[in-house]
Amino acid sequence: MLIYIAVALFPLLVGTYYNARIGRYLTEEETISKKYLRKRWTWLLVAALPMFALIAFRGEYIGADTRGYLRFFNEMIDTPWNKMFVLNNSGYEFEPGFIVFEKLITLITHNSNVYQVIYSSIYLLAVTTFANQLEKANFSFLYFFVTFGIYTFMFTGVRQCLAMCMCLFSYKFIKERKLIPFLLLLILAFLFHKSAILFIAAYFIYGRKIGWINTAIYVGFAAMAYIYIDVIQNWFNDTLDYEYGVEETNSGFIFFAVIAIVTAFSFFTVLYYKKKTPESVGLLNIGVITLVLWLLRLATRVAERPSFYFMFFSAAMLCYALEVPPKSRDRIIYKILIYSAFMILFVYRLITNFYTMIPYVSFF
Prior knowledge:
Elements lengths: L1 H20 L6 H4 L2 H23 L9 H12 L18 H13 L3 H22 L4 H10 L2 H4 L4 H12 L1 H5 L3 H14 L7 H7 L5 H16 L1 H12 L12 H20 L5 H20 L6 H20 L4 H24 L13
Helix pairs in contact: 1-3, 1-7, 3-6, 3-7, 5-11, 6-7, 6-9, 7-17, 9-11, 12-16, 13-16, 15-16, 15-17, 16-17
């Protein structure tokens, strides 16, 4: 377990060093220069490298679906191009984009371990690039990326995680309000995992103003979604050609409470300290989607996986909120409390939901 804790804390250490030696001496103009962004991206890459190395070099029993994806890759090696979209012998039926991706990787290597390193490298580039595009707390984001639980999902859900990465790459176009390149990346993500279509909401909600009217709309939408979960579920199945049923669950209350507190805290700090910027407002808006999905998660487990597309933004939203109090003492107190709480949550989930990941085993 210590290795997982270490990779979560490592970005905070790198970030402390970076801010002390480099960031603190830069002017505001320098912090937005292309040269600075490239340099910060390199340091973020260093900070994130250990956590993604654990994903890349994990053994086949680390992650619920790891063996299945490795088996599918090995089958694609001998599958002719004209038959790769046919339901294969192992019973998988994957989206066409992912199948083509797998087949293309077989042209590079027939080694399933190398294949695992290749797609993990895409994870690394996407998360690092997203972190670098944030206005504040870039290194802290990597800490919350791990402790929020998005990180542990990347040990298993390869198809959806690749789709999530494409959605992260589209953040640049969400910020710049460039619809066409955003849609192109979204379509590509959809070809890897159909659930990515839900991420279209991020573009249109990002620029909405924060106020009582929008808040009332969000509350009303959440209530209606919860009441009509069966209707939403049927639409989801018909649209995405899935056969999911409403899977009742008595779990999820703790994490729903966490998301609710994080969302409330973020709204409070940004509005109270009057730090509304296009990015802070955008992150708050997308964070509401995460909250609604985890509300639905109380009724059905099916809502959990779509929430991962938006949880990146909830983590970034929290990072932003922790930086806006003007008094250094207040920021330190908030950070100690929230960093500690999320580490406790991370450890708790490791020893309960993800106990099969302990101890860590590599493929070496």
